Amino acid sequence: MSKKKLYLTIFFIFLLAVFAGIFSYPDSVNRGIKSFNNLNVSLFGFQIQIPNFPNAPFILGLDLQGGVQLIYEADLSNIEEADRKETMDGLRDVIERRVNLYGISEPVIQVQGESRLIVELAGVKDIQGAIEMIGETPYLEFKEMLSDEEREEAKKEFTEEEISQIIEAYKQQSDQEITREEVLDFLTSGILKETELTGKYLKRADITFDSNTNKPQVSLEFKEEGAKLFEQITERNIGKPLAIFLDGQSIVDTDKDGKITENDLYAPTVQEKISGGKAVITGNMNVDQAREIVKRLNSGALPVKIGSPIYQKLIGPTLGQVSLEKSLKAGILGFLAIIIFMIIFYRLPGFLASVALVIYAALVLFLFKAIPVTLSLAGIGGFILSVGMAVDANILIFSRMREELKNGKDFEQSVREGFNRAWPSIRDSNFNSLIVCLILFTFATSFIKGFAFTLSLGILVSMFSAIVITRTFLKCFIGTKLEKIKWLW
Fold it and tell me: What is the DSSP letter of 221?
């Protein structure tokens, strides 16, 4: 590489480092920009105003900034045991989409055991608001009327005392007689039972308008399995109403009594078997209500009921802040100790490695903000550990260089051989560490995942720092007088 290209590479490295540093901590630069703009400097009659550098905050986890922790117990009573894990995974994904829709970044939502769901929302201070937000996720279900056999069985559940009270009350109000069988028919006529079809099988929802009445309605499209279930349900309910419930309330139940009767004018009656997996929700709704239903359904209908949380806690950031301050203090002291050690033991190469280490830290912090990465205490621990691994690569390279210099090779050959001979060890050790990080990220809990991600990110940047940045710095001294001063190397 020519000297011109070499110096140009160094210029871009420092330019990248300065940009990363300003992006990571722009406050000082923005204060300077503000002071300059207050001077009202003009050029060719135009006032110069420099825009501030964007100040994106680091995203902190629940343990560092506090937030809300909720634990829900899902109702899996109607779910086959073989399908429960898949159902809980679906529930987790739906709620994660829901909280992301409300602008909460990096929520921690995980399944615990067979039926419990843990929801951790960093930065949220209102427990009731968080519960209401999650509760807005709709649970969609279809219910059908009882068959003749099931109605006969249901009639047996009413006692003679209850029937007699109804007959007497009816006689007093209307001054007419009513038979026992008529009472039982009335009591069982509006009883509904759940079907297999729920929001789990919903593909998407859209707002449409009735061609005759021009009233808004909600069209539903089911997934392949849901389309088959809907076809079977409509086939066995021809001539009967099919009730659609959203969050436990029938959309077409006009008197809100939980039963579908002839008084419910908008109760959809199945006219024929419906194939193709499409349905329409009609009801006494306006455009805004229909639009809200569509929005909520498309953001995710819950595959099972979760009800109210069985545990709720508002977590304060005090403990996390203390731990963060101690961790940062330990990290800074360790960083300074590494620099002092490298300079004392490796002299000029150690100084160059220290400069590369500062650039490394700026780049990693830039990536934490740009990706962005949610930082927990475990994640910060992974970053601090990666700093030590970044130094390991430089130590291997400098030790190989010294061996080559002792064997009588010139400086250029020593630099080249030092990197070539150290590279296999650097590659293999870092590759093994990345494999461990991948395993942790795939199978561990959320906090360990944060550690694994920050550590793996730090390892990748450390390899770039050692192989590219440090190597470029050393090449600047090839052919100079300093390469002749043996004690520097």
Answer: E
DSSP secondary structure letter of residue 268: -
> Cα-Cα-Cα-Cα dihedral of 386, 388, 392, 393, to 10°?
40
Do 362 and 24 form a contact (C-beta atoms < 8 A)? yes
CATH of 142-146+191-299, one of 3.30.1360.200, 3.20.20.140, 3.10.20.30, 3.90.1150.30: 3.30.1360.200
Q: Between 397 and 260, whose confidence is greater?
A: 397
pTM above 0.70, yes or no: no
- Please tell me what DSSP assigns to residue 269: B
Peptide bond into 372 cis (omega under 30): yes
Distance CA 121, CA 101 (A): 13
Counting every residue, how long is the chain? 489
Mean pLDDT of the chain: 83
Is 191 in contact with 154 (CB distance < 8 Å)? yes
Instruction: Give the pairing type, strands 59-60 and 374-375.
Output: parallel
From 3.30.460.80, 3.30.70.260, 1.20.1640.10, 3.40.50.10350, which CATH number describes the 3-24+319-488 domain?
1.20.1640.10
- C-alpha 294/C-alpha 130 separation (Å) is 21
Taking each helix axis from N to C end, the angle separating 411-443 and 377-406, rounded to the nearest 10 degrees, works out to 160
Please tell me the predicted confidence (pLDDT) of residue 265. Answer: 36
Q: Residue 156, SS3?
A: coil
Largest CA-CA distance found in the chain, in angstroms, rounded:
120
Summarize pLDDT for 163-175 with one digit per residue, the tens: 888 888 888 887 7
139 touches 302 (CB < 8 A): yes
Give how far the C-alpha of residue 64 lies from the chain's centroid of Cα atoms, to the nearest Å.
Answer: 17
Structure token digits, residue 209: 């308008």
Is residue 364 a contact partner of residue 375, using CB atoms and an 8 Å limit? no
The count of other CB atoms within 10 Å of the CB of residue 281 is: 23
